[in-house]
């Protein structure tokens, strides 16, 4: 059976430049859509967070920012059904980097707070990348790549093609103007070959060998379907 570890942020806020803490977590669509697609494809899915801390959903992803009311109602219902899964995650720090067929990181602003500086997660990503084991990073989740960089800013992801939420898309959020850093900028600083779609908030997926990435929440379904096709 194909196995997938979904690595979720355990953060409950994103610290902004002025020290304020913006409430956050994982983005509903970016977890629910791939999780459901993988499960329906017959994959075995394990949810993991740093320290096995139960993750929380970003409430913005269940409001106007999350889509039409019919969409957010469906997401709320699906999250409620998945509450037992989310309440008892595995510890991401104890996941064998070589064991799962896929490690999939959903986004939300949470990864900007914890996974961006989580060295254990960074080591998992490094080992999988160097062993050509599949990795998928969605929206803000490529922030986890930053934890693979050394003190000189060198990362095994340097030179690899990755997409992530663009600066333009990020700045649609008023609170993002108070951010101390933006994801696109940081990825480019460590030498990632950042790519984005022609239009913002449209599905865009980049595949570089066994490294998969999606630009935004709208890319969730396309990214999951591509992975299912390649691993199924």
Automatic annotation (TrEMBL):
GO-annotated biological processes: methylglyoxal catabolic process to D-lactate via S-lactoyl-glutathione; proteolysis
Top-level lineage group: Bacteria
Signal peptide extent: none
Domain DJ-1/PfpI, residue spans: 28-228
UniProt cross-references to InterPro entries, sorted A to Z: Class_I_gatase-like (IPR029062), DJ-1/PfpI (IPR002818), Prot/Nucl_acid_deglycase (IPR050325)
GO MF: glyoxalase III activity; peptidase activity
A Pfam family of this chain: DJ-1_PfpI
TM region(s), chain numbering: none
GO CC terms of this entry: cytoplasm
Keywords noted in UniProt: Hydrolase, Lyase, Protease, Stress response
Similarity comment: Belongs to the peptidase C56 family. HSP31-like subfamily.
Protein name per the record: Putative intracellular protease/amidase
């Amino acid at each position: 059976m194909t196995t997938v570890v979904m690595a979720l942020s355990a953060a409950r806020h994103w610290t902004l430049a002025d020290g304020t803490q913006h409430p956050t977590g994982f983005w509903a669509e970016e977890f629910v859509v791939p999780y459901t697609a993988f499960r329906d494809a017959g994959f075995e899915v394990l949810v993991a967070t740093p320290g096995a801390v139960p993750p929380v959903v970003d409430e913005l992803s269940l409001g106007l920012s999350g889509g039409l009311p019919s969409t957010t109602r469906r997401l709320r219902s699906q999250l409620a059904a998945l509450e037992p899964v989310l309440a008892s995650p595995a510890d991401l720090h104890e996941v064998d980097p070589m064991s799962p067929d896929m490690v999939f990181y959903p986004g939300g602003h949470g990864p900007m707070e914890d996974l961006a500086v989580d060295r254990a997660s960074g080591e998992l990503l490094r080992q999988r990348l160097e062993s050509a084991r599949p990795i998928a990073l969605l929206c803000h989740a490529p922030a986890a790549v930053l934890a693979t960089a050394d003190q000189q800013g060198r990362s095994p992801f340097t030179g690899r093609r990755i997409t992530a939420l663009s600066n333009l898309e990020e700045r649609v959020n008023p609170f993002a103007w108070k951010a101390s850093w933006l994801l696109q900028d940081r990825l480019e600083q460590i030498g990632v070959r950042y790519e984005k779609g022609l239009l913002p908030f449209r599905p865009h997926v980049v595949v570089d060998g066994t490294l998969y990435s999606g630009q935004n929440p709208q890319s969730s379904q396309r990214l999951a379907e591509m992975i299912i096709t390649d691993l199924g």
